[in-house]
Amino acid sequence: MKAELKTYEEKMKKSLDVLAKELAAVRAGRANPAVLDKITVEYYGAPTPLNQVAAVSTPDPRSLAIQPWDASILKAIEKAIQASDLGINPQNDGKQIRLSFPPLTEERRKELIKGVAKLGEEDKVALRNIRRDAIDKFKAAHKKSEMTEDELHESEDKMQKLTDKYVKEVDAMVAKKSKELAEV
After folding, report:
1. β-strand 40-43 against 54-60: which pairing, if any?
2. Those residues with Cβ within 8 angstroms of residue 98's Cβ, 6 or more apart along the chain or in another chain
3. Which residues of the chain have pLDDT under 50?
């Protein structure tokens, strides 16, 4: 039974890792290369993640510089950025692409905070689904007489405590990111 609890805890940790990556991609007024993680570029006919075809650096807090290893894909990178939901126009100087991040407006900030809260809610739903799957499995084991009534209740309790712990972590991550967005 402990092995199964470990399995569910691993799933919950993975869910938190995904949330952390998604929150890192939310821009908070300063340039963060993670905002480019979801952008793919057409490279030799295959969609390739931007970070695999170019070096991304932050020359100053409000801009990113994208230096492709193959200069022939500058146009493709520019197109991919324009097609993304970044809302930033890339400047192509023939050698590299610069992205300048304007300061966030109050309206955009509120939008981003709502989006962060939505990501947190989605992750909590995922955690609750993991809990539900675990409890269903425990009940099935009890039905097959592989587990006593006491073991069932103990396992359900442990699963609930685990879920509560990870839900608190999600809330803390969302609160931290929301505060970061509100202060920018």
Report:
1. unpaired
2. 63, 64, 65, 66, 90, 91
3. none
**Quick check: helix, strand or coil at residue 26?**
coil
Considering Cα of 67, then 69, then 70, then 71, what sign does the dihedral take? Answer: positive
How many helices and strands (H and E) does the chain possess?
A: 4, 6
3-state SS class at 124 = helix
Amino acid symbol at 167: V
CA 97 vs CA 27, 65, 149: distances in Å: 18, 6, 63
Digit-coded pLDDT (tens) for 108-136 = 788 888 989 999 999 999 999 999 999 99
Cα–Cα distance list, 178 to 87, 101, 132, 137, 172 (Å): 20, 19, 29, 36, 10
Structure tokens at 68: 């492709």
Of 43, 33, 37, 32, the residue nearest 75 (C-alpha): 43
